[in-house]
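The data layer described in this paper is built around a simple, fixed record for each protein. Because each token names a local backbone shape, the row as a whole describes the fold. We quote a single record here, exactly as it is kept in our systems:

***
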Amino acid sequence: MFLLAGPVAFAQTDSLRFSIRGSVRDAANGKALPYVSVTLPGTNFATVTNQDGTFVIKSDVVPRFVAFSLLGYKVLTVPADREREMRVSLTRGEYTLEAAQVVSGDPLTLLREAIYKIQDNCPSEPELFECFYRETAQKRNRFIYVSEAVTKMYKTSFRTLWGRDRTAVEKSRLLTSPRRSDTLAVKVVGGPTQSVELDLVKNRVLILNEEDLENYRLEMGDPVMLDDRRQFVIRLIPAKTLDYALHNGTIYIDQETMAFSRIELSLDMSDPDKATRVMLVKKPSDIRFRPKEMSLLLNYKREGDKSRLSYVRTVFRFNCDARRRLLNTEFTAIAEMVVTNRFDRADVAPIERSESFRTNDALADKTQVYADPDFWKDYNIIEPTESLEHAIGRLKKE
């Protein structure tokens, strides 16, 4: 069994009786677009498209419009259609500079200003969110397990670094491979806690602090559009050799508000031993672990004058083999969390320690505790991909 380091009182929403389904594609080539942010303007409900570009989003009121946004594409808002599946096409955005505009500056100075303005750009009051979490593990191209959960996330004011930020699982389900040959289990430690552990804007002990930034060379990238807003692009490149692995990264900062819009990190794999120490918690003694990728994506959405975490995705990719065998097998574990609803202020209450999901637990081990036969009912979720459905179809029938 591998343990991978996690990236890492509930208001029942039984009134979500209105739902919209659809798919999103590139207008130019017709390819499905995954990870598109899907929201219902005027509400707090949201989700993202899956690998096949499809989505389902639910609401407690009749949806009038649906908005779609993705890095590099123009934001699109269209009338909602509950009668049939919506088919949406996004066009790539073009970034043009005004004649007198010059985008320049020291990337470290820009980054410091964005960090300084976090308290202004992010909520100053505690908030409670509903989230959907999915964790998948693949052996080569075949799914060996899928773990999903409806969670809640409590965040304290951004004027404090940590406070009592916690997550709790409301309900979950687990589907595992029926093949006897799948004797190696892959588990992500921490699971749903990634929504607080890896919020780099809130948890600035990781990357966004003076001590860590000294380990990187910062470069300005070409500006891009995100949600029809101009973004500074700052690239992080490891500049020192330390006793632990650094990251390659790209940070997107709103040019007008200096709010963080998107953060992409990829663990430096040039030293496999250092990368292994970051990725791997535990493994059988006769198994060799060879790291290939560990990446993180954070998306932040702006609502009114505040920015909030909206989506987290981590990818673990590695090879392994038994020491006495020649066969080398590739495994991929993906964990993603989308914020699907933000509760009204009157319903915000801290998550008690006894309810919170622990950072050293694996969701796959806790499924029976949170199992619910009505898992899909009345909640916003990330639609299963067609390939995922095919891979676990027999299990669902059982």
Q: What stands out?
A: The helical segments are 107-116, 118-121, 194-197, 210-213, 272-279, 367-370, 386-397. The first strand starts at residue 2 and ends at 4.
